[in-house]
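Suppose you are handed a protein chain with no further information: no name, no annotation, nothing but its sequence. What can you learn? This example shows the usual starting point.
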Amino acid sequence: MKYALIGCGRISPNHIEAAKNNHLEFVAMCDIVPKTMQEKSEWFDLEAVRKYTDYRELLEKEKPDLVAIATESGKHAAIALDCIAAGCNVIIEKPIALSIADADAIVRAGREAGIVVCANHQNRFNKSVQYMRKALEAGRFGRLSHGAAHVRWNRGKGYYDQAPWRGTWAQDGGCLMNQCIHNIDLLRWFMGDEIDEVMAYTDQLAHPYLEAEDLGMALVKFSNGAYGLIEGTTNVYPKNLEETLYIFGEKGTAKAAGASDNIIEEWRFADEIDDPAEVKKRFSENPPNIYGFGHTPLYADVIEAIKAGREPLVNAEAGKRALELVLAIYKSAAEHRPVKLPLKECSTMDFVGRFDKK
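A reasonable first move is to predict its three-dimensional structure. Written in structure tokens, the prediction is:
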């Protein structure tokens, strides 16, 4: 299966390793900064892989079967639509887009073309998350009460100086859209997906050089009667603290924690069919960074989906749902009111100037 990577920045090593681990035929890579592309090429012994600075030229000449899009967020949608139009299956780094309209366009285009479109929410493939999901699908939690997603991280000026698009409304959004959307995706996925309304606050407390928020807190009312709490920030001193996911039900309590939900810290179920100590040992990992080990199994799932003609585990609709929840939080905070879902239209660009007077 011919594979190409568009975007060779911070997250690209995870995609390269996942492609190699799944034995894809790596035919081409693309970045508008040749130096960045060359660095990754040398790092991963990809000198034989053809290099492009124009992804359209890559699509035309290489005709890959699968393309991963790992550019700045604001370019995801346009590149994805061009890839789909060219007949390429796609893995789109989070977020899938920055507007409901663009996400809808991707969903529609993929469906009409019969193309596999995957939103790159790799934390769904964490061992801890997979085992928690298995317990959920088996009904072990009973009726869900509430869940909580916390991302307590640190990002300093040096991080934002590395890429000027970070923290902008046109190309990124704030901490909820960039750093926290993986955990937001997990919370929505676990709590039943369908949401009635969202109430939220966002603020910019420690990063005056950004356009967007560095703190967000939200209360989510799910359609099944359960509730969700979201806390996301890049203001934690002096470094990343934790990313945690709690699921509370009438018959079970579970907590995934660690750098990015890679460790099971709590496991309490009324049925007592497994030993909590053994579960914590078997289904916990210690990844070298916050990106974890999820890219390789996510790629494997996409490859299998392409071959079998099925939807991937994290399809375009899932990517849209995570995006929609972040945009609903932004909208609620900006308008100081509860926001009903589904959102028919909303974009990060709706919030330009939100924190300019601070």
